[in-house]
Amino acid sequence: MLDLDDDTYILLLLADSNLPTGSFVASSGLESYMKHGFASLAPSVDQAIVTFVRHSLSTYARSVIPFVSDVHRLISSANPSELYQSGGEIMDSLAAIDRLYEASTLNHVTRRASMTQGVALLTLYSKGLSNSPGVNSNADSQRTSALSRLVDKYKLLIRREETPGHLPVCWGILTAALGLSLERAQYLHLFLHARGLLSAAVRLNEIGPYGAQQLLLHVVRPLVAAELQHCSRLRTGVLESEQSEYDVTVDGPANTWPLGEVIATRHDLQHSRIFNS
Question: Which CATH number is correct for 6-10+25-269, 1.25.40, 1.10.4190, 1.10.287, 1.10.8?
Answer without folding.
Answer: 1.10.4190
